[in-house]
Amino acid sequence: NASHELLLNSIWLGGMLGTVRVFATRSGPWHKGQFEQKIRRCGWNNHNDVLDRSDWEEVGCQRLAAAWDSTREIQLSKPVRILPGETRGFYVHSGLPDDLGIQYQSYADQDDIVVADDFLTVHPGIGHTGSHAFETYHGWFRAIRGPCGAFSYTATLRSWSAQTHSI
Fold first, then answer.
1. Does residue 134 carry a pLDDT above 50?
2. Is residue 5 a contact partner of residue 82, using CB atoms and an 8 Å limit?
3. Which of 36, 10, 30, 34 lies closest to 22, judged by CA?
4. d(Cα 146, Cα 54) in Å, to the nearest integer?
5. Nearest by Cα to 73 from 119, 124, 9
6. pLDDT digits 0-9 by tens, 51-94
7. FRET partner for 119 with CA separation of 20 to 30 A, picked from 29, 89, 128, 136?
8. What is the distance between the alpha carbons of residues 56 and 24, in angstroms, rounded to a whole number?
């Protein structure tokens, strides 16, 4: 929404979970907006430069019990502020050594919408099965995936007015 600032406080996920770490891009969409170029290279084994760790900031880490038929909340230790009109990328990673850590669903196109409401629209990204975040030697990246879960946030109206801004 172009007039509201969002503060993302937590993410709800299903899966075998384990130690879950949440990362957010420092600004903009994931990997400096190179989604389309990188996504075509995300295959079974061709994944050596999909994610650049320097683009991401860790905003949460929590050990969670399995929740295969439900979801568990991951509280962010550093809530993520999303300004009006801004796009941010999120990387949610389970430390488990297989692809059961986080439940996800597949999508046909990167422009598909995973979920949307009046304030937030979530698009799919990639799935990663390595047991270490940003690891490129074990596991694999698979496109185009979206999380099964929810986001908890607050929305605050941010608009310009003569009363709130000096000229």
1. yes
2. yes
3. 10
4. 23
5. 9
6. 778 888 999 999 999 999 999 999 999 999 999 888 898 989 99
7. 128
8. 5
Q: Specify the length of the chain in residues.
A: 167
CB atoms within 10 A of CB 57: 13
Tokens encoding 74: 């991951």
The pair phi, psi for residue 19, each rounded to 5°, is -80, 115
Angle at 24 between CA 21 and CA 19, to 5 degrees: 5
pLDDT in tens, 32-61: 444 444 444 444 444 445 677 888 899 999
Is residue 62 within 8 A of residue 130, CB to CB? The reply is: no
**What single-letter amino acid sits at 38?**
K
Give Cα 134 distance to the centre of its chain: 13
Q: List the Cα angle 143/148/153 in 5-degree steps.
A: 110
In three-state secondary structure terms, 133 is coil
Residue 95 half-sphere exposure, CB side, CA atoms within 13 Å? 10
CA 95/CA 103 separation, integer angstroms: 13
CB distance 20 to 62 below 8 Å:
yes
Residue with tokens 């009363």: 163
Farthest CA pair distance, the chain = 56
